Amino acid sequence: MTEIETLAQRAKAAAATLRTAKPEMRADALRRMAGNLEKCRDRLLAANAADMADAARLPEAFRKRLRVDDKVFSYMEKRLREAAALPDPVGRILEKRTMPGGLVVKRVAVPIGVIAMIYEARPNVTADAAAVALKSGNAVILKGGSEAMRSNLVLAEAMRAAVADAGLPADAIQMVPTSDRAAVAELLKQDKYIDLVIPRGGKSLIRAIEEGTRIPVLKHYDGICHQYVAADADPEMAARIIANSKCQNVAVCNALETLLVDAAAPETTVERIVAALRKNGVELRGCERFRKLVPDALPATEADWDTEYLAPVLSVRIVDGVEEAAKHIAEHGSGHTDGIITSSPELAERFVGLVDSASVLVNASTRISGGGDYGMGAVVGISTDRLHARGPVGPEQLCTYKYVAVGNGNLRE
Amino acid sequence: MTEIETLAQRAKAAAATLRTAKPEMRADALRRMAGNLEKCRDRLLAANAADMADAARLPEAFRKRLRVDDKVFSYMEKRLREAAALPDPVGRILEKRTMPGGLVVKRVAVPIGVIAMIYEARPNVTADAAAVALKSGNAVILKGGSEAMRSNLVLAEAMRAAVADAGLPADAIQMVPTSDRAAVAELLKQDKYIDLVIPRGGKSLIRAIEEGTRIPVLKHYDGICHQYVAADADPEMAARIIANSKCQNVAVCNALETLLVDAAAPETTVERIVAALRKNGVELRGCERFRKLVPDALPATEADWDTEYLAPVLSVRIVDGVEEAAKHIAEHGSGHTDGIITSSPELAERFVGLVDSASVLVNASTRISGGGDYGMGAVVGISTDRLHARGPVGPEQLCTYKYVAVGNGNLRE
Q1: d(CA A208, CA B221)
Q2: Is B369 in Cβ contact with A407 (below 8 Å)?
Q3: Most buried in the list A26, A64, B172, B375, measured by CB within 10 Å?
Q4: For A182-213, how does the pLDDT look when each residue is reduced to its tens digit (9 = 90+)?
Q5: What residues does B337 pair with on adjacent strands?
Q6: Is B207 in Cβ contact with A214 (below 8 Å)?
Q7: Architecture of domain B225-368 in CATH?
Q8: Contact A20 B214 (CB under 8 A)
Q9: B3-220+393-406: which CATH number, 3.40.50.720, 1.10.10.10, 3.90.950.20, 3.40.605.10?
């Protein structure tokens, strides 16, 4: 038995215990995890400093994800405490009906089982994934980007100890202790023990994972997000939303990548938006029609419409009406988050009907698409898949269900 | 472009139309499908007679599934009318909350898109799958077992005409018109157009499908179903439930395959159950302890505990208590349907907590585990997967969701 197989087998045994553990024990473990995080603060920051030093030459967007500073630290701790306080997702009665023959049929939320999470070099995801998995009664196997290995090992150790202190199996949380690529391949073979793989990161990595496993995969591709500014959009609101969508954090999946402006929008609306973006140092790449309005914008190539920049760059296209906007989104978007800015509820409704993305927004920044702003608490990411869970993946999304049918001798006639 | 690729592309175009079609149009199409079925009755029965003639040498369980007699015909028609009358699953508001900043977040049910259904030579599944897919706003590509090809082509033609008459694209329902195995391989490559594959049938077929595609797969393995007769079970109820579980239809996935009897159950309970089974001609294969009670039962081998007979054969094991019963089920079951017969609500609750199957039953026949007895109407089958949908898969299960968030200029701080 390989090391990875042993690890997967232990996770399955832990999952069987977790499945029947009382909600209060899991909440207790989460509170202890937050407490242990506080205790290991200095060690974590030192480990992260070492990870950051090794990553000195990597791109700034990458380093931004890797860094654990005071803000990220507080955020991790807060998420663990929030997860402890959230209502328990396990055992929820999702449906209940009594059939004519007296059979009482209930659909009850239960944990999925063992979840393997493969993700970028982003230590806060380690804490979030452990929190969400434990909250939902699942065992989790974590495989973070190797550049974050030191940070992750400190985090995992602290969280495992907390789980054990709460009287639950420490193997509910396990970190793959090697940056060896073969470990991922080996992990993907463990369909006997692992119920779900959640990969986050580059498209090529995720594709390779999908092709290399029989375990169901819940994909977290990055996002090519759009805003469509309708002709009747409030210019000031439009400028604020677009600037926030693009600039608040350029390195994340729900940052804006393409702006669609209706051809009938007043020139002053376009000017205000452009001014807000320029103030934030955003490079604009426009279609021909946009460059007639803003001559010093760079010309956009066909590739721009399909590019997730994760950088202060924005492609801009002038479109004729909501249908053309929706068509552009269907052809070039990634189904992650797409919004409209309009003062017409009817037009908003039309857009919402036409656009088939995980999140469709009206008069809001793409950056609010996520677990926190949706009131879901900690999430493991934002699914771009259509099945099981779409959009933010929190504790409820890491449950499945079973039917419980209680009869009085009911037969099939 | 291959024939299959063209077919998949057409399904995707049809799905885009269906997604925004009014519920009433889909209900109208379903009623017309039932009407057209009635009109093609003679042609269908003739086509099925030809299919049956070709299948003369195949096993009786197989032929039973293939046959369309008056009963099966009425059943198909009834299911279509029931589907038309069911509440519309698309557009349901699954959750709604208003966040402190005024953001209104809704989770709304939407169709999955294009579903490919690969199934056995069982014409009633053709009608059920088309009904469930259309009800939920999905386009469906049907690939039924080749032995049912004549029956299926008559059915598909009738249903497509009905969809077109209702003003919807006929390509919402398409039948792969060849029994060529290469067609399935080609279908599984169409991840650009197909959102979900639902295979039913043998384990080896389903495994091959999972390994051969990047499209998400919702598996419908067959079932190794158990009943556990507790010491306090009402003997008469136990005998009735066990006989119905095993004998009402031996050829289906929710038929009983293994009986677990508590060692503390009175001998008279065992006698009653055995008498009821023998009356129905069931061959018994028991463990050593069972054979002490029933000496003329055949000895069960280890392989028996893992066998889905789909025949009038039942394996029987004596167990010591509910934990041992649950352990046997975890080791040998397929997570489909498992039940307890007891007069103790506490013991029932204990069993329900320990057994992690898609359906866990109390004092009811395994045969009632399904869409009809659960009040879900037509289903495409019973999923043995843990993700997205578990147990019966009806119109609600063939939906996904999107988040719709309506703001007033909400930004991420």
Answers
A1: 26
A2: no
A3: B172
A4: 899 999 999 999 999 999 888 888 888 888 88
A5: B359
A6: yes
A7: 3-Layer(aba) Sandwich (3.40)
A8: no
A9: 3.40.605.10
